[in-house]
Design brief:
Length: 340
C-alpha cells in the first residue's frame, strides 16, 4: 500500500532516529562527525525546525527538535543527502549510507527532559564512556556549560522545556538528572522500536490496510513517574470498516468511560450536562459507526430511546466521528488480542 505522509504537529517535540545501512560504523571515518554537524547547521538554517539536542553514535544518529511547518523528510533529505555524497567521495565507498527513512517519536513537553537524558546517555549505554559529560559527540557538554554550544543549537530552549533556567544551577540540575539515569537500560518507549511489528499486528488484527501514526510518548496519568507510548492507526477512507464485533456493548461503555473520565453510572443516568451528553454520543458513535452495530442496542444499554440515540449521531462532528473510529479500532484490537 502507499506510504503515508507523516502527521507531525507543528511545535511538537520530536525524537528523530536515523541508522546507517547494515548498522555500519560510518561515523568512525575521519572527520565524519565534524562534517555531519557542519551540514546540520546549514540544513536547520534552511528550515523552521528548532534543534535542541543530538547524539552522533558510530552506527546511528539521534536528533531532538521542535517541529516546524516544514516536513521532517525535507529536513533529513537536505542533511543526509549531502552528507552521504561527501562520505562516499571521501572514503571511496558506493551505495546508500542511511537505511530507509528516519523514524520519529513525538513526546509531550513534560517528557522532554527524559528524552534528552536518554539521548545524552547513548554513549554510556554503548560502553563508550562512563560519564555523559566526557563524550564530545552529544549535546550534553553544551547543556552543562563544559563546551560552547554551536549557534544553531537551542540549548536554552531545551532547558526551558525541561523546566530549568539557563544558569549554573539549572545546568547542574540537568546534569544530575542525566547522571541519575546513566545506568538505565534501553527504553523502547522513547524510540520507534518494534514499529514494523506493531504495523503488521494492526493489519492482522483488523484485516485492514492500516498504517501507523508517529508514536507519542507521554506521562501516564495513573502513574506520573512512568512513561506510556501511544500509536494511532490510520485507516484509508476507502477501506471497509465493518469489524466483526460480537462482544457486549458494556465493554464499549467501559472504554468510553475510561477515555472521557465520565463514569458508567453517569453515562447511564438521566444527566443532560454537556460533558455527559458528549460522552454518551461517543459511545453511540463507537457502537454504530465504528463497530457497525444497531443503534438501538447501545440505546438500551444507556437507558435512552432509539430516537435519542439517532439524534446524538446526527449532531456529531467530524472530530467526534474520527475519535469514535480510533477508539473502535483500538478496542477491537485489544479484545482480539485478549482472546487470541
Amino acid at each position: 500500500m502507499p506510504r503515508y505522509r507523516r502527521r507531525i504537529a507543528e511545535g511538537s517535540v520530536q525524537h528523530l532516529i536515523s541508522r546507517f545501512v547494515n548498522r555500519e560504523f560510518l561515523f568512525d571515518a575521519p572527520d565524519a562527525r565534524e562534517e555531519y554537524l557542519s551540514r546540520a547547521a546549514r540544513s536547520f538554517e534552511r528550515c523552521d525546525w528548532v534543534p535542541i539536542g543530538y547524539a552522533l553514535m558510530s552506527s546511528h544518529v539521534h536528533w531532538i527538535a521542535i517541529a516546524g511547518s516544514d516536513s521532517s523528510d525535507m529536513l533529513m533529505r537536505s542533511l543526509h543527502g549531502g552528507f552521504s555524497g561527501w562520505l562516499n567521495r571521501s572514503t571511496g565507498r558506493l551505495g546508500p549510507v542511511f537505511a530507509d527513512r528516519h523514524r520519529n517519536v513525538e513526546c509531550e513537553s513534560k517528557t522532554a527532559i527524559a528524552m534528552l537524558a536518554y539521548v545524552h546517555n547513548n554513549p554510556v549505554r554503548a560502553g563508550v564512556v562512563v560519564d555523559p559529560a566526557v563524550s564530545p559527540w552529544t549535546s550534553h557538554r553544551a547543556y552543562i556549560g563544559v563546551a560552547a554550544a554551536p549557534d544553531w543549537l537551542r540549548v536554552e530552549r531545551g532547558l526551558s522545556l525541561c523546566g530549568l533556567e539557563p544558569c549554573a544551577a539549572g545546568r547542574n540540575a540537568f546534569h544530575k538528572y542525566v547522571m541519575q539515569r546513566a545506568n538505565e537500560p534501553r527504553q523502547p518507549k522513547l524510540v520507534a522500536a518494534n514499529l514494523q511489528r506493531a504495523r503488521r499486528d494492526a493489519r492482522r488484527i483488523t484485516a485492514l490496510p492500516v498504517e501507523l501514526a508517529s508514536p507519542r510518548v507521554a506521562v501516564e496519568r495513573q502513574r506520573p513517574g512512568q512513561l506510556a507510548q501511544h500509536i494511532d492507526w490510520i485507516v484509508p477512507a476507502s477501506s471497509p470498516r465493518r469489524l466483526r464485533w460480537t462482544a457486549s456493548p458494556l465493554i464499549v461503555l467501559r472504554a468510553v468511560a475510561s477515555s472521557t473520565a465520565i463514569s458508567e453510572l453517569e453515562l447511564r443516568s438521566r444527566s443532560r450536562t454537556h460533558h455527559v451528553s458528549r460522552a454518551r454520543r461517543l459511545a453511540v458513535l463507537v457502537w454504530t459507526l465504528g463497530l457497525s452495530r444497531p443503534a438501538i442496542e447501545m440505546a438500551r444499554t444507556l437507558g435512552i430511546a432509539g430516537t435519542t440515540a439517532s439524534s446524538l449521531i446526527g449532531r456529531s462532528s467530524t472530530h467526534e466521528r474520527e475519535q469514535a473510529l480510533r477508539l473502535a479500532h483500538a478496542l477491537y484490537a485489544s479484545t482480539v488480542q485478549q482472546n487470541a
